[in-house]
Specification:
Strand content: 5-15%
Helix content: 40-55%
Distance between the termini: 50 Å
CATH class of the largest domain: Alpha Beta
Radius of gyration: 19 Å
Shape: globular
CATH architecture of the largest domain: 3-Layer(aba) Sandwich
CATH topology of the largest domain: Rossmann fold
Number of helices: 16
Order of helices and strands: EHEHEEEHEHEHEHEHEHHHHHHHHH
Structural class: alpha/beta
Strand order of the largest sheet: 5-2-1-6-7-8-9-10
Largest sheet: 8 strands, mixed
Length: about 325
């Protein structure tokens, strides 16, 4: 079977590594083709077998073909796995649709919301391309480096079609990468996107020297906000209590490898958003998602106090300490 992975950042590269044994080059099978938009990086990776920018120090199997050509990546592909940042997704899918047939199974592992349209990644895919099978969504508590090193991880593969999700579950699951099926892509994608904003808040709290009590309260109330919005959009509460909700939120808020948490810590240290983003090699999706989340909150009439405060810190120069104080001084209410 042939797999095309579009997006060679840390997560796309890690998925190519962990899935390589599942897609060997045998007979007519071309295995995995990993596409990168950066031609110079693709050339270096093909030679050194290492992503020296986004995942340095970890070898990429020789069976993974690395390319800057969408036509090459999608030649005879049977599964397309999109792992590009949300603000590039539409551009990439619009370009890719010229090279594949409707029989390709589409999987998106992008975590974010398209800022201009407020569409989830799977909705962007479905607007850009025509496919015979329902789109699947891959998400869960994963740091790319740990997955690439072969450390055990569990994720969710979600689709409105149980058969579509089960097909990808069978194709992708391996000794260190376990997939659970789910039929709630709305809940999965909303959880995947908004947890990044809460993780910025977690970084702010850590940067201000606040302790475990604050962190526990933030994660719990953050999950309540995410769940409120997801349910109003049509998602299921139980999804947000699982791997794609609580699991991913806990990891991203507490893990040292979290880019979004790092943004929060830098904000608490007094750096501007421009300084922080300019110094980062990788995308912190929570920065883009925060504005989209507030627009969704307004559209669906949902109160998101933590995300609102992070929006004010990111875009209105509110001090992180003031944001925390205002959250604590909100009117009292039942849980």
């Amino acid at each position: 079977m042939n797999l095309a992975i579009l997006g060679g950042g840390s997560w796309g590269t890690a998925l190519a590594i962990v899935l390589a044994p599942r897609f060997p080059q045998t007979g007519k099978s071309k295995g995995i083709r990993l596409w990168l938009r950066e031609a110079d990086l693709a050339e270096r990776m093909a030679s050194s077998r290492e992503n020296d920018i986004f995942l340095p120090g970890i070898q990429i199997p020789n069976s993974v073909q690395i390319t800057n050509s969408l036509e090459t990546a999608l030649d005879h592909a049977q599964i397309l796995l999109g792992v590009m940042p949300s603000h590039y997704a539409r551009e990439v899918y619009d370009a890719a649709r010229h090279y594949f047939t409707p029989e390709i199974r589409l999987v998106t592992a992008t975590k974010g919301i398209e800022r201009e349209t407020l569409l989830r990644p799977s909705e962007v895919v479905e607007q850009s391309v025509t496919a015979a099978f329902p789109t699947c969504v891959l998400s869960g508590p994963t740091f790319a480096r740990e997955v690439a090193k072969g450390e055990p991880a569990a994720v969710v593969i979600s689709s409105a079609s149980e058969d579509a999700a089960s097909f990808i579950q069978s194709a992708f699951s391996g000794p260190s990468f376990r997939l659970y099926t789910n039929t709630d892509p709305i809940g999965v994608e909303v959880g995947a996107a908004l947890k990044n904003v809460i993780a910025i808040a977690a970084g702010v709290c850590q940067g201000l020297g606040l302790g475990n009590n604050t962190q526990a309260a933030l994660i719990t109330r953050g999950l309540a906000e995410i769940t409120r919005l997801a349910v109003r959009m049509g998602g299921q509460p139980k999804t947000l209590a699982g791997l794609a909700g609580l699991g991913d939120l806990v990891l991203t808020c507490n893990g040292d490898l979290s880019r979004n948490r790092m943004v929060g810590k830098e904000l608490a240290a007094g750096k501007s958003l421009t300084e922080i983003v300019g110094s980062m090699k990788m995308v912190a999706e929570g920065v883009e998602t925060c504005a989209a989340a507030m627009a969704l909150a307004q559209k669906y009439g949902v109160d998101l106090p933590i995300i609102q405060q992070m929006h004010d810190v990111l875009y209105s120069s509110k001090s992180p300490r003031q944001a925390v104080r205002e959250l604590m001084e909100r009117s009292l209410k039942p849980e």
